[in-house]
Automatic annotation (TrEMBL), chains A, B:
<dbReference type="GO" id="GO:0019563">
    <property type="term" value="P:glycerol catabolic process"/>
</dbReference>
<protein>
    <submittedName>
        <fullName>Dihydroxyacetone kinase subunit DhaK</fullName>
    </submittedName>
</protein>
<dbReference type="GO" id="GO:0004371">
    <property type="term" value="F:glycerone kinase activity"/>
</dbReference>
<dbReference type="Pfam" id="PF02733">
    <property type="entry name" value="Dak1"/>
</dbReference>
<keyword id="KW-0418">Kinase</keyword>
<dbReference type="GO" id="GO:0005829">
    <property type="term" value="C:cytosol"/>
</dbReference>
<dbReference type="InterPro" id="IPR050861">
    <property type="entry name" value="Dihydroxyacetone_Kinase"/>
</dbReference>
<dbReference type="InterPro" id="IPR004006">
    <property type="entry name" value="DhaK_dom"/>
</dbReference>
<feature type="domain" description="DhaK">
    <location>
        <begin position="7"/>
        <end position="328"/>
    </location>
</feature>
<keyword id="KW-0808">Transferase</keyword>
Amino acid sequence: MKKFINKIEDIVTEMIEGQVLASPEILQHIPNTKVIARKNINKNKVAIISGGGSGHEPSHGGFVGVGMLDAAVFGEVFTSPGPDRILDAIQNVVGEPGGLLLVKNYTGDAMNFGMALDLGKNLGFNLEKVMITDDIALEGANLSTGKRGIIGTLFVQKIAGAAAEAGLNLLEIKRIAQKAVDHTASFGISLSGSIVPANGKPGFIVPEGEMEVGLGNHGEPGLRREQQKSADECAEMIMKNIEQYLKLQKGDEVALIVNGLGGTPMMELNILARQAIKILQAKNIKIHKTFVGSFITAIDMKGFSFSVIKLDAELKKFLNAPVVTSSMVGN
Amino acid sequence: MKKFINKIEDIVTEMIEGQVLASPEILQHIPNTKVIARKNINKNKVAIISGGGSGHEPSHGGFVGVGMLDAAVFGEVFTSPGPDRILDAIQNVVGEPGGLLLVKNYTGDAMNFGMALDLGKNLGFNLEKVMITDDIALEGANLSTGKRGIIGTLFVQKIAGAAAEAGLNLLEIKRIAQKAVDHTASFGISLSGSIVPANGKPGFIVPEGEMEVGLGNHGEPGLRREQQKSADECAEMIMKNIEQYLKLQKGDEVALIVNGLGGTPMMELNILARQAIKILQAKNIKIHKTFVGSFITAIDMKGFSFSVIKLDAELKKFLNAPVVTSSMVGN
């Protein structure tokens, strides 16, 4: 297997250790847990907790820090963390003002974060959760769990984290985070599955000359398989779906993420960003900020997605607020 | 070919456009050139210019901005930019205080940047250059051009850029940049070659179960092929070479880059970073800062490298100085 790893069973532990060792000024590993918390835990504000299966690095550990997440909880690769692991995060970072769980909408995460929330409440913690459901590719499909949470998660974590840092109360932050979810649409395409270390083979094979439209973040099948198209054609197809979903109109203001899924070089992401921005500009939609990079990945998948958030004054203010994490710095 | 591109001949142009469109507050494309310059050109300080073949994104366009590069010049994929392209950069960003060319040591770059320097001098520009030679893997080999320049380039660009921003004169900055080169050692390993779009196939094939030690940044052969080892064993082999080269001793202070070559997920980079840091800590070598990410890539190569710079007070001051680029923000 063409991977730089040690024992497969140690991957998550070693990855957590590595991330914290590399950013000791920002992060700490809570001993005997699968939780990365910010270096200086502040229990005088609402705590923002997120997490999920591993394999999406730098998410979510890379987004722990002042102005974003208070803690990230890690499951095994592409496996939701159990309620006990999530409760470890709650018990270590949530104080009097309470905690908000930001949960990508997958069956396992919905269940485990839901159970952890109940367990935490029973212990006296003031907790709320927001389900992230930004993937519009499968909207029409018959999914009992509803839309999936993918790369728009980054917007929700950033905005909720800034609102918490500003001292807002739990229900206000929940309202703003839910608004961020409702204003965000994401859609992706892949040219390959990702290689889960325990399997050593791709989760699915996309034949040469084809592409998977509406990819899942864990190698779930997408919406449909079609002939591979040019970067510009892919960008046009995705932006058309996003524009329709968000009902974008001339004069609207948005932020854009062009996200690589781990095996897509920046060369291609820049080419895709070019067309996405041109399409929005041609419709006189104002782009407040563009993020291009591999923020929430599927290990080494050759794929990308666009996420667009339609901004209002409140969302824009919190998107702009300063943040200090290992994978998103600045303001 | 599993790539999100349009016409192969448009890759570099579109990539430049995309990068500038995504960061209009930081970057500008100088019309009719293959040059990305910082948005607000400041000719009252020494200009720092770097560049080389494309395919190493986010380098070098991602490192243009206040506190780092004034301009980046792009050649075609894995092809040095001609002297005319480099002269475009010189003519657009160099003022009275002069300009410093930071050149990765490859035959093509050495020749083209050298010619551009002579052409620029004939036009009356005050120019100097520093050759970057941080790759210690092939040190003993019979290379007529000397050691290659690889990922340590990031340290040299950051430090020279900060010195220029601080208002130092050209010869002082040249001295400091050369010191940064002399204090830096890099070494890499790969598990695959990269797929150049014009070829559609990897530049070299590494059989399953083997690895290329001392990889070249463009898919040049490395030092030797050997049996694939664990992440920790790879880290140990590389750090041993780097420690010996830099004569690192207890109490020394360093900065570390764990760089992915485009096809290496953050999962693996974090695991590699963990061991690199543990090795340095075990020898009581102080790590001032660690950068983990894919900064200077070889398109989609599955590979990584470590770069270590031995810091003194001067190098540390300039490494710490604020910087605002699209791929390195903060201080």
